[in-house]
């Protein structure tokens, strides 16, 4: 897959088969759309092109809304789309100026002149252009001018797509990891830099990696204890993660702390990726540190059981 971070990097193709969207999370619903795109490209002898936008339009339209959380960063989205086997990924910088582009200019300057679109795979409810004025009907009514063949994504696929994105976010916010992972088709994950915390874990025999997620818009699941796989230094480890405020030891602020099973190296300053496999229990305030230690031991055993 070739990746282009602007339209100027892309040379228009002779037979581009295109679909577009934000593709946040690249879940199973998105996978069906990509399969349709690839099948259409194979039938027409064209090259598959996914057109997406970054930053996510909502981050530009509502820059101060802290409630906006995304399932994937740009790097994660690129990796996931590459795994689906498309030919080209064009990432258009989404700016306020771009949001003012009329539907006609979008079709002529981006789809036709910029990409070389011969076939567009599009849903009945897809909107584009200033004030979302363009859509499937607009393209169909102007087919004689634009000379773009349209392949409509079935209504049930679009509705499933919308439900999936909403359900994944709701599931993660409720700690329903198995539901989220089932809709994603893979374990939900995030990565971050290991930073020094209060190092209280070491004093009770369970050192933890305090994982700092730089992208504030990245959705972190609800507070609780989770069984996780940890990827570090090219290896995979089993682990237990606590998301929350560590109430027993008077923690302040939400943290993501991972205890890697059977591992005790110094990893400060390193980047690790956490794949969340299952939910173990809610975060709890214990009456004493001894009770906390006993529960952590039980959590580790439960994690081994779930991850095996």
UniProtKB/TrEMBL annotation:
Task: Record the organism.
Answer: Jiulongibacter sediminis
An example of a Pfam family matching this protein is FAD_syn
Q: Catalysed reaction(s)?
A: FMN + ATP + H(+) = FAD + diphosphate; riboflavin + ATP = FMN + ADP + H(+)
Residue ranges constituting the Riboflavin kinase domain according to the UniProt record? 183-308
| Molecular functions (GO terms) | ATP binding; FMN adenylyltransferase activity; riboflavin kinase activity
User: Sorted alphabetically, which InterPro entries does this protein's record hold?
Assistant: FAD_synthase, Riboflavin_kinase, Riboflavin_kinase_bac, Riboflavin_kinase_bac/euk, Riboflavin_kinase_dom_sf, Rossmann-like_a/b/a_fold
Q: What class of enzyme is it?
A: transferase
Q: What is this protein called?
A: Riboflavin biosynthesis protein
């Amino acid at each position: 897959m070739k990746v282009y971070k602007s339209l100027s990097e892309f040379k228009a193709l002779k037979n581009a088969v295109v679909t577009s969207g934000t593709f946040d999370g690249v879940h199973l619903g998105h996978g069906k759309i990509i399969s349709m795109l690839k099948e259409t490209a194979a039938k027409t002898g064209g090259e598959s092109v996914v057109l997406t936008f970054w930053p996510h339009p909502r981050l530009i339209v509502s820059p101060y809304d802290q409630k906006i959380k995304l399932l994937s960063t740009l790097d994660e989205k690129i990796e996931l789309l590459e795994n689906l086997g498309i030919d080209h990924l064009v990432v258009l910088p989404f700016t306020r100026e771009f949001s003012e582009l009329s539907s006609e200019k979008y079709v002529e300057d981006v789809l036709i002149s910029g990409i070389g679109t011969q076939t567009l795979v599009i849903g009945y409810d897809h909107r584009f252009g200033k004030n979302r004025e363009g859509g499937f009907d607009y393209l169909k009514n102007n087919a004689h001018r634009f000379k773009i063949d349209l392949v409509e994504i079935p209504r049930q696929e679009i509705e499933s797509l919308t439900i999936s994105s909403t359900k994944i976010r709701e599931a993660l916010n409720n700690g329903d990891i198995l539901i989220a992972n089932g809709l994603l088709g893979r374990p939900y994950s995030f990565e971050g830099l290991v930073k020094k915390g209060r190092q209280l874990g070491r004093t009770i025999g369970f050192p933890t990696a305090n994982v700092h997620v730089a992208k504030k818009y990245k959705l972190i699941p609800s507070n609780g204890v989770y069984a996780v796989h940890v990827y570090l230094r090219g290896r995979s480890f089993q682990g237990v993660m606590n998301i929350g405020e560590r109430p027993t030891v008077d923690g302040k602020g939400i943290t993501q702390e991972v205890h890697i099973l059977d591992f005790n190296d110094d990893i400060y300053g390193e980047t690790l990726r956490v794949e969340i496999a299952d939910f173990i229990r809610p975060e709890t305030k214990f009456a004493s540190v001894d009770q906390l230690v006993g529960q952590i031991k039980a959590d580790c055993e439960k994690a081994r059981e779930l991850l095996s």
